[in-house]
From TrEMBL:
This is Fe2OG dioxygenase domain-containing protein. Involved in the regulation of shoot development and salicylic acid (SA) homeostasis. Belongs to the iron/ascorbate-dependent oxidoreductase family. The keyword Iron applies. It is found in: Cytoplasm; Nucleus. Residues 218-318 form the Fe2OG dioxygenase domain. The lineage of its organism: Eukaryota, Viridiplantae, Streptophyta, Embryophyta, Tracheophyta. Pfam families: 2OG-FeII_Oxy, DIOX_N. Its cofactor is L-ascorbate.
Length: 372
């Protein structure tokens, strides 16, 4: 059926697809329905659509780079300063020289791609809208709440604790489970190195640092494999809408196709795919923990006209049943410069909010701010 959409991209014809087809995901749509235009369900309001720019038009700013080799060396002052600045000014940075073998990274990307290439019947064994499911295949950002769907399918794998959860992970394609296990272990270790450095850069003090690190060691870890099929009209939709991540840090592995954009000083900056590197970003929990010194930053993913894109996001935080609060060493109500800015917030409250709303902005975090 054809539908006329007026006043958005002029008067044009957009294809309609029924909701049950949409819920099967974008890959299913591209493979089984066969589309040459973006169906109306995926067309974003004009104000949210990306401006597709040539490389000459794109802002030239690059994300700061953190070299893990420097972090592990004796003279760490400079790299800790760079990290502090990166978290304050961008909320994002690229991580290089991290010691995770290129083979582990490539296998994760290859296995992830092969998972999304499985027949729909195989993938759909994990299809569920139950956000508490430890393994979840799905589409868009939040299928239950999204009015407009985004051009993305995903597989979410809870990683902690691995022993109890592993039997639930997909066993196909061959090698997938082993590749994802190794990748999740390596990214967890890298997260612990990074968050220890972040606590040091924040100056939370040795005692607080030790107790927080214990919480992270037993903390939550979610692996999100994102698949963004090539899109016939990338100017009308988004791979992922503007959002912030909930945790402390997210480690994003991108393949060679660009798409991730970060909002910085009013401009959308493209996070260049640097082979073998990770893009790391500050999440909402770190914003609360740092009492606003570091802020989570809105980011989005632009779809690509000719190539399918894949990314693997590794989201880390404290345990799901924990509270997130400003670090004791960073707040002092007797000191105007260290006034507490956020209420204590249960991780479960974040999850409950995320499953009932469309987090286009940082509205939940705003509601956790203390007013004077
Ligand atoms: O695909 C990407 O590069 C980013 C994905 C992302 O922002 C997320 O999974 O939260
Ligand atoms: Fe994200």
């Amino acid at each position: 059926m054809e539908k006329i959409i007026e006043g958005e991209r002029g008067v044009e014809e957009a294809m309609e697809v029924d909701d049950s087809t949409v819920m099967k995901g974008v890959r299913h749509l591209c493979e089984n329905v066969g589309i040459t235009r973006v169906p109306s369900k995926y067309i974003f309001p004009v104000s949210d659509r990306p401006q597709i720019m040539s490389s000459a038009q794109k802002p030239k700013i690059k994300l700061p780079v953190i070299d893990i080799g420097e972090l592990l060396s004796e003279d760490r002052t400079r790299v800790l300063e760079t990290l502090d600045q990166a978290c304050k000014e961008y909320g994002f940075f690229q991580v290089v020289n991290h010691g995770i073998d290129g083979v582990v990274i490539q296998r994760m990307i290859d296995s992830g791609k092969q998972f999304f290439e499985l027949p729909f019947e195989e993938r759909s064994r994990y299809l569920t809208t139950d956000t508490s499911s430890p393994v979840r295949y799905g589409t868009s950002f939040s299928e239950i709440n999204d009015e407009v769907f985004c051009w993305r399918d995903f597989l979410k794998l809870t990683c902690h604790s691995l022993d109890t959860i592993l039997p639930l992970w997909p066993s196909a394609p061959i090698g997938f489970r082993d590749d994802a296990i190794l990748y999740s272990k390596k990214t967890r270790t890298l997260f612990l190195v990074l968050i220890a450095a972040v606590l040091e850069a924040l100056g939370v003090g040795a005692g607080n640092c030790e107790s927080s690190m214990k919480e992270f060691e037993e903390g939550s870890h979610l692996l999100v494999l994102n698949c963004y099929p090539a899109c016939p009209e990338p100017e009308l939709t988004l791979g992922m809408p503007s959002h912030s991540d909930y945790g402390f840090l997210t480690l994003v592995l991108q393949d060679e196709v660009e798409g991730l954009q970060v909002l910085h000083a009013g401009d959308w900056i493209t996070a260049d795919p640097v082979p073998g590197s990770f893009v790391v970003n500050v999440g909402d929990h770190l914003e609360i923990y740092s009492n606003g010194r570091y802020q989570s930053v809105l980011h989005r993913v632009v779809a690509n006209a000719s190539e399918s894109r894949m990314s693997v996001a590794s989201l880390h935080s404290v345990a799901f049943d924990s509270m997130v609060s400003p670090a004791a060493g960073l707040v002092d109500d007797g000191d105007a410069g260290k006034r507490r800015l956020y209420k204590d917030t249960g991780f479960a409250d974040f999850i409950a909010y995320l499953s009932t709303s469309v987090p286009k902005s940082k509205s939940f975090l705003e509601s956790r701010r203390l007013t004077m």
